TrEMBL record:
One of its GO terms (molecular function) is ATP binding. SUPFAM superfamilies: P-loop containing nucleoside triphosphate hydrolases. This is RNA helicase. It catalyses: ATP + H2O = ADP + phosphate + H(+). Residues 1-103 are annotated as: Disordered. Residues 199-366 form the Helicase ATP-binding domain. It comes from Geranomyces variabilis. It is an enzyme of class 3 (hydrolase).
Length: 559
């Protein structure tokens, strides 16, 4: 087997910031003039994260249309409102109640969860519809057979999943949203949910720039805000949510529908091929990608005049002037200037953060220090291969390992992903390839097949490096070390890629492949950036590789 010597520690090259240039943007004032509600209700859950700006003073009491009580939609009692029939257009995923790794709660659990929603019986929570993702396999066992549960992790004051409040009720959400949350198996808010939601829901609305580690529940924080801000008697678009890729937009839409299933929300996709030119985008919540929303605006296929909330997930990526920044600015220009702007990401490199502050002026900020960015449960390895060909050989050799759970293999270029897919297939191994060169329906099929566990290995590019949440992914391979548009090591993309595993307290493994001095230096630069060790796995013996990595994949303790 080929030997190599990239591990002789050379001096790591410094990682320059992958910054977006700061440019000016149209200013949006925060607050769009809702009347304030009773102060003081949030007192039980004061934010403790370093937050710039004021603390919230106001409760989102009447978050339905004016005159609707907090337990009813459009005058109907909460429990008699039918599950939403959101506008369905192309790109939608069929619900898959039997996804691997997702368990239904036992009856007793459902009773306990349902009883948390004041005044609702178990029956009213539609037990049959409850899908729970409470405890995945890799959350529970450490090498010492000590069971570590989500409850343990959420009780650890230092963990990103911890919150000072023990229930979602303390966040004063609408009962029908509480039903949606508990139906998804959530029991207790994570730190970002506890801290962001009071700020996001306060009136008058204030902009937000929110940061929290990957897999810690940012989506629920902004989706609950979206569903809380809608005036349900008005069918026009009121919320626009943008994501950098169609796969992520589709996933966010799944969460909107699942969390909002007891509300009468209507939704609409703004992703490529989901609608025809001339077809109006109708729905209270629009979720899409910036290019498609821009096109719909240009063609006057979307009425943005009533939009009061503009959310950008993976905001640092969406504001990056090398990428989607231009399109995001144009969408923002079509939205009423008083709309609340909400930006979320796990990473905000300094230059982007400065720019974000002009994009979302006077925003409340929840930030992380660099040393807090890494997800504790993800064990990081590297393998130093002799050359490109050897990388491929090693990958084929460890294929069995890739299928212990599910794994994602990231490549820098589409053609490399295609070649690798072909090589694994030639070797008799099943895998899927997904990149932006595929047609939209091919992309949808690939991610759905992977999400539903029909195939266990996904080879891809950075197109799904961010946001994709598939709990049973326990291994991420960086077949190529991620580089930015100027070919410098890209720590942010690295963090997002490896964050596809280790979701919400689960454990995971990442393996980086190096094949020459340069790729070794790039990997080392990323290691230095985060100050977390990336441990060498020798490539000289396949049994040895299997032994080390299998032990890591199977037995990692959660912390
Ligand atoms: N309070 C909660 N209790 C239990 N599970 C939760 C809770 N909040 C979120 N989750 C689950 O945790 C997982 C990760 O959440 P989410 O995708 O929102 O992470 P994220 O912070 O947006 O990550 P990324 O930065 O990678 O986009 C999801 O499967 C979600 O359903």
């Amino acid at each position: 087997m080929a030997q190599n010597g990239w591990s002789a520690p050379p001096k790591p090259s410094p990682v320059p910031p992958t910054a977006a240039a700061a440019t000016s943007s149209s200013k949006a004032a925060s607050g769009w003039g809702q009347s304030p509600a009773a102060p003081g209700t949030w007192a039980a859950a004061p934010p403790t994260t370093p937050i710039a700006g004021t603390t919230p003073t106001v409760v989102p009491s009447g978050w339905g249309p004016p005159g609707v009580t907090s337990s009813s939609w459009n005058g109907k009692p909460a429990s008699t409102v039918p599950a939403s029939a959101p506008v369905q257009n192309n790109g939608a995923r069929m619900p898959s109640p039997t996804r691997p790794g997702v368990q239904r709660p036992a009856d007793a659990e459902v009773t306990a969860l349902a009883s948390k929603v004041d005044g609702l019986s178990t029956e009213e929570t539609e037990v049959e519809d409850l899908v729970i993702a409470k405890k995945a396999d890799n959350l529970v066992e450490s090498a010492q057979d000590v069971e570590v549960t989500l409850a343990d992790l959420q009780a650890d004051a230092d963990a990103p999943l911890y919150s000072g409040i023990s229930t979602f009720e303390a966040l004063h959400l609408h009962p029908d949203l509480l039903k949606g949350i508990y139906g998804m198996g959530f029991q207790r808010p994570s730190k970002i949910q506890e801290r962001a939601l009071p700020l996001l829901l306060a009136n008058p609305p204030k902009n937000m720039i929110g940061q929290s580690q990957s897999g810690t529940g940012k989506t629920a924080a902004f989706v609950l805000t979206m569903l809380s801000r809608i005036t349900y008697t008005d069918p026009r678009p009121q919320v626009v949510c943008l994501a950098p890729a169609r796969e992520l937009a589709r996933q966010i839409m799944d969460v909107v529908k699942e969390m909002g299933k007891y509300t009468p929300v209507t939704t609409c996709f703004a992703i490529k091929d989901a609608f025809k030119r001339g077809q109006k985008l109708e729905g209270q919540v629009i979720v899409g990608t910036p290019g498609t929303v821009m096109t719909a605006m240009k063609n006057r296929d979307i009425d943005l005049s009533q939009v009061k909330l503009f959310v950008m997930d993976e905001a640092d990526n969406m504001l990056d002037q090398q990428g989607l920044g231009d399109q995001s600015i144009r969408v923002k220009k079509g939205i009423p200037p008083k709309a609340q702007i909400v930006l979320f990401s796990a990473t905000f490199p300094p230059a982007v953060r400065d720019y974000a502050a002009t994009f979302a002026p006077d925003a409340n900020m929840i930030s992380l220090r660099r040393e807090e960015l890494s997800v504790e449960g993800i064990k990081q390895f590297y393998m130093d291969c002799a050359n490109e060909q050897h990388k491929q050989e090693v990958l084929c050799a460890i294929y069995g390992l890739l299928t212990i759970g599910q794994s994602i293999i990231f490549c820098r270029k589409r053609n490399v992903a295609d070649q690798l897919g072909a090589a694994l297939t030639r070797d008799g191994h099943e895998c899927l390839v997904l990149h932006a060169g595929l047609d939209p329906d091919e992309r949808d099929k690939a991610i759905d097949d992977f999400r539903d566990g029909r195939c266990k290995v996904l080879i891809t590019t950075n197109v799904i490096a961010r946001g994709i949440d598939i709990l049973q992914v326990n291994l991420v391979v960086n077949y190529d070390i991620p580089l930015d548009s100027q070919n410098r090591p890209d720590p942010e993309t690295y963090l997002h890629r490896i964050g596809r595993t280790g979701r919400f307290g689960r454990t995971g493994v990442s393996i980086n492949f190096c094949h020459d001095q340069q790729s070794y230096n790039e990997m080392k630069a990323i290691e230095t950036h985060f100050g977390r060790p990336i441990v060498r796995v020798p490539t000289s013996s396949y049994p040895e590789i299997e032994k080390i990595l299998k032990a890591a994949v199977k037995n990692l303790p959660p912390k």
